Every structure is written in C-alpha cells, then in structure tokens.
C-alpha cells in the first residue's frame, strides 16, 4: 500500500515554506536589480515548489507498506533504499496527529513506536484518516491475537474473539472549567525566559525615547518586565488550552486511548502492559487549588518524548489518584520524610548561594558603571530557611506491598508510583557532603525513566542505613514479583492449552 496522494502537494508546500527565509533574502536582494525583483522572486518560488514536488512524488512512489499477521513491512527511501520488518509484538504505541489543514484535506500523520527503540520505527506522512484508523485498529487486533497465542498475561479479555474490537470504557473527559484552570496554572517558564530576553534590550531604548525625565530605566525595566510576564502567561495559557482542548481518555482492553487538541488533533494509545510508572504532578499553584496532572511512562519512546504521556493534563487531585489506580492499583500512601539534618543541609546550601549572589551584585555595583540596589539581593539569604523547609517538607518515600512511591519537588512536586517488577536498577549513592551528614540517596531506574543522570525517581537525603535497607527491600521485592509474574504467565498458558485441547 502507498501513502495518500495528497501527501505530494501538501509535503511540497511544507518543504517550500521551510525555505521561506531564503525566499525573503532572495526577494530583497533582487529588488535592488532594476526590473528583476518580482521576476526573480516568482522564479525562486516556482523553482522551490517544483523541486519539492518532484522529491515528494519520488518519496510517495518509493514508500510502500504491508501489514501481515506478524509484521509491519515498510520499503522506503528516495536516494537510498531501506526495507524494514517491524514485529507487531514489539509495537507499543500507534499515534496519529492532524493539524487544521490536514483535517481539511482528510489526511493524518501516523507514528509507530516499539519497545526499546531509539527512534520512531515507522512514520507515515501522510495517509487518509480512514487508513490511519485502520492501521491503529488492525495493529491492535493483531497484537492481541499474537498475545493470545504467546500466552501473554493481560493480552486479551476472556471471551474475546480474534475479530473483536475491544469496547472502549470512558475514563475521563476534560471539562471547560478544568481546561481554563489548566491555562491558568501551566505557565511555561521556558517561554517566560524567551520573552525576558527582550527586557535588557528594549528597556534602555524605551527610557531614551521617553520625553519625561522621570521615566528612567528604573521605571522602564519593571514596566516592560510586567508586560513580558503578562504576554508569557497569556501565550502559555493559549498553548495549553489549544493543546488539550477536547481531551478524552478511555480504556479498551489492555490499553488507554486518548484524544486531544484544537488546532492540531492528536490520538494515540498507551499500552497498560508496558507502563513503567505513573506520576502525579502538581505545581505550586495547582497544589493550592487542589488539582494535579497524571502522567504515565512507558518504554519505547523516542529520545525527545522521554517515554511520557500525559494521561490526564489536570483534574482534582482525588480524581487523579483514582485514575492512577486504574493504571496501577496501589494502596494508601504514608510518606517517610528525610531526617531534619537534611533540612539543615539545604539551609546551608541556599544561604551560601544567596551570599555569593549578593557578593556578585555588590561587585557589579562597586566596580562597574551599573548602579542598582545590590542589597536587595541579600533578601535571598533571609529566604534560605523558608526554601530549605519547603524542599524538605515535599520530599518522601513509601514502601507498599507491590509498589514503591517517591516524592520530590516544591515548585513542581512529582509523586512517582513504581511497581517492583518494572524496576531496572536500584542505585544507592552518597556525595561527599552527604557522607558528612550520614545521608544517602536511592535512585529507582525503570525502562521509562529519563536517564540515570537526572529524571529518575529517587528517595533523596534519607538516613544512610535506611537507604541501604530501602535498596535491599526493593531488590528483594523485584525478584519476588518477577517470580510471581512468570508463574502467572505459565498458569495462563497452561489454561489456554487445556482449553484448546477440550475444543
């Protein structure tokens, strides 16, 4: 089978649009040549579209795919040929996306992720909406068939036939109130830093242009900073609202299905059998309002995806916990906090940082032409005890029967629930400063974690003896849970063989 024929003109226009900056430069440059400006610009645009169209046609002609009972076979490549056979049992996620133009044309982009893949295994740009739905449904059905044959636990519900499409059970639909609250609480600090780069550039110019001498840099900079913050908040809110507009979550057999987006519409699946952990996220504002987001992590996502899918972007915290238990049935959680000397460690650390920043501000004021109230930075030292207490208060861990739960973060607090059988490694470590205070950190790594250097859930700054005990407990329960899962799979396989023999 081939991609949709509409992918040729659509891809050509997109490719030419990406060269828009080059077209602008050529147009301005040719404008200086008498009588050549419009002709050159038109020729460049026509040439870019022709080349892009030729490439997209060749790509369309050389892209073929077949869906067999066991594999998804793809032949592609314009200049170098590539043939792939993707085993369906390794497929984890089949996601589709459609922006406003694609929806008008009736096409969609489909991506296929596999377990352990370092990149997207298959990228269909673009197929018809009907074909996108067929691919998702057929891959799901064939995976369930292979699961029944292999005896995989949870591969299919009892009584389902090979041709059955699992009945979707609605789990969550985002209300208008929750959508508006999401726009309020989900301020993207990266966007704020981007807009903030304008302040040191525009503020001096604004002050020089002012007629009123009282309108100095001291007034212009805070005014512009306020405008930047307002624009950043509004832009971030608009992005969140359009990104999660119409969010719906449902469950079908052994997978979660989601749909979201206003301008760009996304649909996809999250296989429950591949979930590595569930994460409750609450930034400081959402936490004050009693709201939280739910994220599930699965193995097999490309590097830019970090293995994370937002299962619920925002809802009341009790509802988020309830939905988290739909994915991983964990019990009540009572957190154990680090010892109070860990809080003292944070106090010393933050106070030193505050003193260093104060010294730098004083040096700039004293030895350069820039003059400002450097002593205002010293307020950071006074805030060090508050910051240390808030960091300590939001740390904790809990050892449950089938899960370990780890919590950290103040500005954005994350509570991670990890089933023992999904643990890859357990690492106990001590820094030089931790050893001086008899503290240690235990890192719990899963296949869906974001790397051993940073995004893994951890029990931070706990008693050194307790860290050793926690590491050994998790390791022991990992082995016990793996044995239990293997025994369950063997029992399921034997039952299916016996049932087949009776037939």
TrEMBL record:
Residues of the YdbS-like PH domain: 60-139, 244-325, 392-474
Annotated segments matching region Disordered: 481-503
Database matches in InterPro entries: UCP026631, YdbS-like_PH
Key word Transmembrane helix present: yes
Domain of life of the source: Archaea
UniProt keyword annotation of Membrane present: yes
The entry's keywords: Membrane, Transmembrane, Transmembrane helix
Regions that span the bilayer: 12-33, 39-58, 179-203, 215-241, 346-364, 370-390
Protein name: YdbS-like PH domain-containing protein
């Amino acid at each position: 089978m081939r991609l949709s024929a509409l992918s040729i003109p659509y891809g050509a226009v997109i490719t030419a649009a990406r060269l828009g900056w080059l077209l602008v430069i050529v147009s301005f440059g040719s404008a200086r040549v008498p009588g050549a400006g419009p002709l050159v610009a038109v020729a460049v645009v026509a040439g870019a579209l022709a080349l892009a169209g030729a490439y997209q046609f060749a790509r369309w002609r050389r892209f073929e795919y077949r869906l067999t009972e066991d594999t998804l076979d793809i032949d592609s490549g314009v200049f170098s040929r590539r043939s792939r056979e993707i085993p369906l049992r390794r497929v984890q996620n089949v996601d589709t996306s459609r922006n406003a133009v694609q929806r008008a044309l009736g096409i969609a982009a489909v991506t296929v992720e596999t377990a352990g893949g370092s990149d997207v295994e298959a990228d269909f740009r673009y197929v018809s909406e009907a074909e996108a739905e067929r691919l998702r449904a057929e891959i799901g059905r064939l995976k369930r068939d292979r699961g029944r044959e292999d005896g995989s636990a949870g591969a299919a519900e009892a009584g389902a036939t090979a041709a059955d499409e699992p009945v979707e059970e609605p789990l969550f639909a985002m209300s208008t109130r929750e959508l508006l609250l999401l726009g309020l609480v989900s301020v993207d600090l990266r966007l704020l830093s981007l807009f903030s780069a304008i302040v040191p550039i525009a503020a001096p110019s604004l002050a020089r242009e002012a007629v009123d001498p009282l309108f100095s840099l001291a007034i212009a900079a805070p005014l512009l900073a306020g405008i930047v913050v307002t624009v950043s908040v509004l832009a971030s809110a608009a992005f969140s609202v359009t990104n999660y507009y119409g969010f719906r979550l449902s469950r079908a057999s052994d997978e979660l299905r989601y749909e979201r987006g206003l301008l760009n519409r996304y649909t996809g699946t999250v296989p429950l059998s591949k979930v590595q952990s569930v994460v409750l996220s609450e930034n400081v504002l959402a936490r004050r309002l009693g709201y939280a987001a739910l994220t599930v992590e699965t193995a097999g996502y490309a590097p830019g995806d970090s293995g994370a899918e937002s299962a619920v972007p925002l809802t009341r915290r009790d509802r988020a916990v309830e939905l988290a238990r739909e994915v991983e049935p964990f019990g009540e959680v009572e957190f154990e906090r680090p010892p109070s000397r860990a809080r003292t460690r944070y106090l010393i650390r933050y106070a030193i940082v505050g003193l260093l920043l104060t010294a730098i501000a004083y040096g700039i004021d004293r030895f350069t032409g820039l003059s400002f109230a450097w002593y205002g930075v010293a307020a950071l030292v006074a805030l060090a005890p508050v910051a240390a207490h808030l960091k300590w208060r939001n740390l904790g861990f809990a050892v449950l029967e089938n899960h370990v739960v780890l919590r950290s973060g103040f500005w954005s607090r994350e509570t991670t629930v990890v089933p023992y059988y999904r643990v890859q490694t357990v690492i106990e470590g001590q820094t030089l400063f931790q050893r001086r205070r008899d503290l240690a950190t235990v890192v719990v790594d899963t296949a869906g974690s974001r790397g051993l250097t940073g995004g893994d859930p951890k029990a931070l700054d706990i008693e050194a003896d307790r860290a050793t005990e926690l590491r050994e407990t998790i390791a022991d329960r990992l082995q016990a849970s793996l044995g239990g899962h293997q025994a369950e799979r063997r029992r399921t396989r034997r039952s299916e063989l016996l049932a087949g023999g009776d037939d």
